[in-house]
Every structure is written in C-alpha cells, then in structure tokens.
Design goal:
The complex is a heterodimer of chains A (379) and B (157). Chain A has 379 residues and is mainly beta. In chain A, 11% of the residues lie in helices and 52% in strands. Chain A has a single domain (2-376), classed as Porin (Beta Barrel), CATH 2.40.160. Chain A contains four helices and 16 strands. In chain B, strand 2 (50-52) and strand 3 (55-57) form a beta hairpin. Chain B is globular. Classes of the chains: A mainly beta (379), B mainly beta (157). Chains A and B meet through strand 10, strand 11, strand 12, strand 13 and strand 14 of A and helix 1 of B.
Chain lengths: 379, 157
C-alpha cells in the first residue's frame, strides 16, 4: 500500500512537472495531445469520453491518423495519467490506490505514421514499451497497414482505451500453461480495410508483449513460453442496419518450456462471434469465443475453453455513459461477474469512472473501483 | 424497435455462455461443529521461498502445515492471480511439474484421495474442504507456478 502510494505521489509529481514544462514552451493549443494539435481540433472530436474512441476517432485511426486538413507543428509526445482506487483487495490491505502513467508518442515520417505507447510502470511493475508500430494508409486501395507491436483489432480495445475498470475476462483468459491472452499486444504485421458495410482485418505475428497498458507487477511463472509458429488472426464484421455482426479467428502454436522438463508445443485456436448495435442513446455489445488447445500441460492434455460478455450501454449525454456488463469464462473453471459502470468527463481533459464489480457464484466479495484519467498537454 | 431490442437482448444473453464450465470449488460449506479448520493462505507474492526439510517451499502459509488427524484444510487465494493447490504423490517433489490439466478442476475431499486438487482458484476464492484423514506427509503445489517453486507440505499427526 505504502509503495503504491509513494509511486502514485511520484507519478503525480512527474505529471505536474511535465505539465509545467509544456505550459512554458507551448502557446495555447488544442486539447488532445499530438493528433488534435496537428489538425487544430478539440479532444472531443475523437474522444467523447476520454480515452475511448468515438466513431470519428475510429475512422481517423482506420485512415492512418491522417486528415485532409492543414497541419500545424506539434510536440510529438504526450502524457496520460490514471489513478485507480479499489476496495476489497487482498489482505492485509482493505483498499488500494494505484497510479499509472504512460507516454504517448506520434510522428509523421512521410507517408508513414510512427506511434509509441510506453508505460511508466505501476503497482510494482517495470516500465516498458506497450505499443510501438508504424502505420500507413493507402488511399487507392483503402488499406491500412501496421507493423510492429500492436493490439489485435478486437471489438473492445482490451487495455489501451478502457471503457471499464475491470478487464473483459475473455480478453485476459489463458489456457493451462499457454499464457497468451487476446489482450496482449502482438509483434507482427497487420492489414485492415473498410469497404462499405464490410470491415476486414488480418494479422500475422511472431511475438508479443507481456504486461499491462499502465504497468503492473508481473508474477514469476516458473516456466517460459514463446511463439512456436506465426500466429494468424482474422476479423470480419458487417453492418446490417443498426446491427454489426462479426466473426473472428486467432490461431497459432505456443512453445512452453517448463523447468526440469522438455519443451512442448500447444496448438491453439480461438474462434468467436461478435454483435453490436446502436440506436439513439442505447448500445448493445456482445462477444462469444470458443477456444481449443492441443496440449496445455506437457502431458498431451487438450483443453476446451469458452467465454464472452454482454454489455448494455446508455449514453444520457455526449460525454458520459452508464453500462451494465456480464462477463463469463470457463477455462475450465468458470468465473462469472457483473459490473455496473458510470463514466463522466468532469472537464474536457478529466474522466471519472466508477464501477461496482460483483463476482457471481464465487467467494470473492463485491468491490468498488474508481478511475481518474487525464492527458496532457492541456490547452 | 421493442422487438428489435428484445431480439438483441436475447442474443446478448447467449453471449457469455460457458459450455466448457466446470463447477466452482465449494467455499468451505457447513462443517460439523468442533472440527478444527486449518486455513492455508495461497499467495506467491507474500509467501517467498523458504528452504527446509522438504526443499524450497513458497506460495502457501503456513508452510509446512501441521494438523491433527480429522482436521479440515481450506485453501484461500488472497492474490490477484489464479492458483491451485494440487496433491503430489510420493515423498519428494519431482524436478518437473507432475500436474496434468485435471488439476484445474476441483477433486477429492480427503488428503489421501489420489489426485486431489482445489481446482483453479480465482482471486479471492476458497477451495473445497479437504479432510486430513490419515497420518502422513502430503505434498502439493500449484499447476501454474510449480517451478517458482510454489510448493507446500502438510504434516498430519
């Protein structure tokens, strides 16, 4: 608790100093670091509720972070800071606050955009590069290409643009000794294309980042894992009226190296279906994934896994929302929970998110979580 | 609009279903009065390796545990990572993990049951009660972190 608090104080000091430094060297500018400043837009253009992307923000990303607008000079780095409060944590503490900061960087290199997300460490975890990729958008074909360390284009951004305090269980799910979860950024190449009602994405990768967007203490496993063969990921979605339906597949081979025993390989696949709908102030999101692993323990044992979520979201105004989410996984032990979340932009640069997480059928008690998130430079 | 929302809600309920689900480990249940209960804390972060008679042990406390015949053991995961407490046959820890994926599901009610396991204990969860039904030394470990070495011993007298 005390180390978390001192780290939080340290991070606040760093943020304050960085903010002061920016205020000395910059003339008043737009709200969102880097991209908004480049085009003279406000932060709410892409983020109705920070840091989640709205429809314009998603389209902006799919076009390689480029717009047909006059450009201005920018400072290529920014800082995002998040302070999290949790109740009912593991003994001996009863509550905990954890601060985490990330440095975002973006720069234009001709037709290529370079993007970096470096976490500064939190909760006893080390700092590290979370995302780092080059992207380019081909106007003629409508294709977006990315190469480097990137998130899979899942229906919900699992870590970087959290819309809730608790992770989506299905994105964090592992299977036996195969510890590769969907939420971990991949090292490889990816291509995306939106064509009319269709969205297509494919990725090939041969590596990944273990850790969290804001850092976090890693737990030693006593064994190591690495890619045994390139992983292939495919995502197809189609708009049908207010509905968007999709299918997805992620598959590869994981090599697991236990201590005192020979390496073994696990051939895995994750197949899923997605659904989303939006009408007025209401949104509905759902996803179901089925997994299969050929050998998760080195004894040749196969393992089936599954899980998903359903989330109803209501936006009473442009800069806030309420959501009710049901999560479930089985790998093979089941874990179910419900989360009621409220988020509100207190200022154009400060989001407050409060969540009540209620495990279902488990002995863990319900917990409160609260997040305050901001990004600088401010206008 | 209402029909559409009803249909979507039904689809949403279908999402998140878990056909591979195994039953969750019992949380301790009602025990007969007077039965001594030994709670074992399962936490790799707060229980670092200690060398002793059984070699390096970590991740469980107290470790080793010493209980009388008839006592009940309950494992409680106080960490934010999944763990198991799974029985190991024999009198010494093997160099490599002896566990199969069966250790991820709860099984057994007595320490003398072959292959007993708490199953995959999620953060905050407790295992089913396991009765120390016969004198002896019972070794166990975590499926995920056996090499760390997350291992434990229970001495039943």
């Amino acid at each position: 608790m005390s180390s978390n608090r001192s780290r939080a104080v340290e991070a606040v000091l760093v943020a304050t100093l960085a903010c002061a430094a920016f205020s000395m060297v910059r003339t008043p500018a737009s709200a969102v670091p880097i991209f908004a400043e480049r085009y003279g837009l406000s932060c709410t253009t892409c983020h109705s509720v920070l840091p989640e992307l709205n429809a314009f923000g998603r389209a902006f990303r799919e076009h390689g972070y480029r717009l047909s607008l006059p450009k201005r000079a920018t400072i290529p780095i920014a800082l995002r800071y998040q302070e999290m409060y949790q109740s009912n944590v593991a003994p001996p503490d009863t509550r905990r606050t954890t601060g985490g900061g990330i440095v975002l960087g973006a720069a234009e290199l001709g037709h290529v955009e370079a993007f970096v997300h470096e976490n500064l460490g939190a909760g006893g975890g080390p700092a590290g590069l979370f995302l780092g990729y080059l992207s380019t958008y081909d106007e003629r074909s409508g294709m977006l290409y990315r190469a480097g360390l990137f998130e899979l284009p899942l229906q919900q951004s699992p870590q970087q643009r959290l819309i809730a305090a608790t992770p989506f269980s299905i994105y964090a799910m592992t299977a036996g000794h195969d510890d590769l979860a969907l939420q971990q950024p991949r090292l490889g190449v990816e291509a995306e294309r939106r064509s009319g009602p269709w969205y297509l994405a494919a990725a090939v990768d041969h590596g990944e980042f273990h850790g969290a967007a804001y850092g976090g203490a890693p737990l030693p496993l006593g064994y190591t894992t690495r890619p045994g063969a390139p992983e292939l990921a495919l995502f197809v979605r189609r708009d049908i009226g207010v509905l968007t339906l999709g299918v997805e597949h992620v598959g590869g081979v994981r090599t697991i190296a236990p201590q005192g025993a020979a390496d073994f390989s696990d051939t895995y696949r994750r197949d899923g279906v997605t659904l989303s709908a939006a009408r007025g102030k209401w949104e509905l999101w759902g996803e179901q994934i089925f997994g299969h692993d050929s050998d998760v323990d080195g004894h040749g044992s196969p393992l089936g896994s599954s899980g998903g979520y359903a989330m109803m979201l209501y936006r009473p105004g442009p800069h806030g929302y309420l959501s009710l989410r049901y999560d479930a996984i089985a790998n093979p032990t089941q874990q179910r929970s419900a989360a009621l979340t409220g988020a509100l932009m207190l200022t154009p640069h400060l989001r407050l998110l409060v969540e009540r997480d209620v495990p279902i059928g488990a002995t863990a008690p319900p917990a409160w979580r609260a997040l305050v998130t901001t990004a600088i430079p401010w206008p | 609009m209402n029909r559409l929302l009803l249909t979507l809600s039904t689809l949403a309920v279908v999402a998140g279903c878990t056909p591979n689900a195994a039953s969750v480990a019992a949380s301790g249940g009602a025990l007969p009065p007077g039965v001594p209960v030994q709670r074992v804390d399962v936490n790799l972060g707060s229980n670092p390796p200690l060398a002793g008679t059984f070699g390096a042990l970590a991740g469980y406390a107290p470790n080793p545990s010493s209980v009388a015949v008839g006592a009940v053991i309950v494992f409680h995961n106080s960490e934010s990572f999944p763990h198991t407490a799974s029985g190991i046959a024999g009198t010494a820890f093997p160099a490599a993990s002896p566990f199969t994926v069966a250790a991820l599901q709860p099984s057994g009610t007595r320490l003398s049951d072959a292959g007993w396991s708490s199953g995959q204990l999620q953060p905050g969860a407790a295992s089913q009660p396991l009765t120390a039904d016969a004198p002896g030394i019972y070794l166990y470990g975590c499926f995920f972190h056996y090499g760390t070495p997350m291992r434990g011993a229970i001495v039943v007298k």
